[in-house]
Amino acid sequence: MADRLSAERRSWNMSRIRSKDSVPELRVRSFLHRKGFRFRLHDKKLPGSPDIVLKKHRTAIFVHGCYWHRHQGCKQGSYFPKKPRQGLNFWKEKFEKNVQRDKKNRDILEKTGWKVVVIWECETKNEEALQEHLKSIFK
Question: What is this structure's pTM?
Fold first, then answer.
C-alpha cells in the first residue's frame, strides 16, 4: 500500500520531529534551573551528546522519547503502536540500532566515571512525579 502522503509532505512532517529543545527536555531543564543547577546542553565531547550535562556532579542526563528509543513497558514505546504498512524491516532495524547506540553510549560514560540518568518522555508528563524523580537523583 502506498503512503497517503507525498514524499515532500512526508519529508516535511519528519523534519518537524525535534531532537533538541523538545517539550520533555524543556520540562527537565526548567526544573533543574529552578533548583539552581548549572548545566550545559548537548555536549558533543561526550558520547551520545547528552541532552543535559552537569559537570560539577559528573552527571549526564538523556531525555528520551518513548517511541524512538523503545521505552519498555510504556504504551508509546511498544514496538509499533500502529504497525507501518511499508518498510517494517527498516523501522525494526532503525529502532534496534537506536537502542544499541543508547546502551553503548551509556556504558562508555559510566566506565569513564559519569553518572548517567535516562528520563523518559512519559515520565515528564506528571510534573510532581518528575520532580520527585529528579530530587532522588541529586540527594
Answer: 0.82
